[in-house]
Automatic annotation (TrEMBL):
CDD domains associated with the record: RHO_alpha_C_DMO-like
Domain LigXa-like C-terminal intervals: 103-373
Biological source species: Sulfitobacter alexandrii
Top-level taxon of the source organism: Bacteria
Alphabetical UniProt keywords: Oxidoreductase
Molecular-function annotations in GO: oxidoreductase activity
Pfam families xrefs: LigXa_C (PF19301)
Annotated protein name in UniProt: Ring-hydroxylating oxygenase subunit alpha
Length: 408
């Protein structure tokens, strides 16, 4: 447990806040490229500021302040004709990358983009989408860096045919076997978790020891300050940001990157629009309808009884903690090691910004961002004695067969 003062320090994101100052020193997803089809200016609510995405004088993009009522809904999405820009306010640079518009709200010159797979892959091999969660960004991020939760929150009591799992997480086969990932998570629910600090944040390894001296190895990553990179299937990874709208609401913004065939964007978009409303990207299942809870389903099919979309499971878990999780009453355990390490890193970076020592921040200072590739993020099954080497070899094999340059 931590004090209320510390909880405020690491969660609140408005101008002048400690955590907000750290987040502003990184590019943040501001909108999807798809949203610009409605026309500009486009309302953007980011880090406690009410902004609008507009074209600049050079044909690029930038964010500027707009008029907004004090009680405006966090996901308010007015028609472009209704947006009134505020003159004389800050102007924030923006760049479009593979279906996502990123903005930099910090001081000085914006950093370069790292050479992560989601940015290196051609546009044909990346699909972007987002969804609204009514909670603070930090609890949204922390569920994504907890490898143990998937064995419980996303437990499927029946396994679907992996051949029908395109575009869905945990529906593929595990590595080179015929075992569905849902079966692995269900039958081996207590992973050993290792966390290593990296140039970009944290590398998180979950080891599920199986029979016959085999181990399932799942490598995920925390990309500082508010993103994760995780395996979706043998072919795809997900790079997902947890972007603060304000202190009590956030968007998850995902880039799905394929190492094989071009992404079928029509299928993936249709899958996600079954669960979300436009133009707000608010989920159709929410606390008002109990997240679609069905006790009969819970008895026979899923742990939560809330359908087969694991985003709904995560949404229920993080929103159920309240708008801002009360960490003064929590009791972290062994499986929360990545959360503990991340909070230490965040606190160190907050202190570094306050002391004007930004070289401490991951991917800031003298970091060579062009050298930051990957990150490795996959599932593998290997002999327990050499799980690390086998996992790396599996990633190298996937990259070698990739139709675009995925070398690291």
């Amino acid at each position: 447990m931590i004090s209320q003062e510390l909880n405020d320090r690491i969660t609140r994101v408005g101008p002048g806040t400690p955590a907000g100052a750290v987040l502003r020193r990184y590019w943040q997803p501001a909108a999807l490229s798809d949203e610009m089809a409605r026309g500009l200016p486009l309302a953007v609510n980011l880090l406690g500021e009410r902004l609008a995405l507009v074209a600049d004088d050079r044909g690029g993009l930038q964010l500027v302040p707009r008029e907004a009522a004090a009680d405006e809904a966090p996901s308010h999405s007015p028609d472009p004709s209704e947006i009134v820009l505020v003159k004389g306010g800050p102007v924030y640079p923006a760049q479009e990358r593979n279906g996502v518009v990123f903005a930099y709200l910090g001081p000085d010159t914006p950093p370069s983009f790292p050479e992560f797979d989601c940015f290196r892959a051609p546009e044909s091999h990346v699909f972007a989408f987002k969804g609204l969660w009514e909670c603070n960004w930090l609890q949204a991020l922390e569920i994504g860096i907890d490898p143990a939760h998937a064995s419980f929150l996303h437990r499927f009591l029946e396994d679907e045919d992996p051949g029908d799992g395109y575009g869905k997480q945990f529906r593929d086969r595990a590595a080179h076997t015929n075992m569905p990932m849902t079966q692995v998570l269900r039958e081996y629910p207590r992973p050993d978790i290792q966390v290593e600090e990296t140039d970009f944040g944290l590398k998180i390894v979950a080891l599920r020891h199986m029979e016959n001296e085999l181990t399932h190895v799942r490598v995920t990553n925390q990309i500082f300050p508010d993103a994760i990179c995780i395996p979706m299937s043998r072919e795809m990874t997900i790079t997902q940001w947890h972007v603060p709208i304000d202190d009590e609401n956030c968007y998850w913004v995902s880039m799905f990157t394929s190492f094989g065939a071009p992404v079928n964007k029509d299928v993936m978009r249709a899958q996600r629009l079954e669960e979300h409303e436009l133009p707000t990207y608010a989920p159709k299942k929410n606390r008002d309808n109990r997240y679609g809870y069905n006790p009969a389903e819970q008895q026979s099919t899923t742990y939560t009884g809330m359908g087969l979309d694991i985003n709904v499971h995560d949404q229920w878990a993080v929103e159920g903690m309240g708008a801002i999780q009360d960490r003064t009453q929590e009791h972290l355990g062994r499986s929360d090691v990545a959360i503990v390490r991340y909070r230490r890193l965040l606190r160190k970076c907050i202190a570094a910004v306050e002391e004007a020592d930004e070289a401490v921040l991951p991917m800031r200072g003298q970091a060579d961002l062009c050298a930051l590739k990957g990150p490795l993020s996959n599932d593998a099954i290997a002999e327990t004695r050499d799980w690390s080497g086998a996992n790396h070899a599996a990633d190298m094999a996937r990259r070698a067969a990739c139709p675009w340059d995925a070398t690291v």
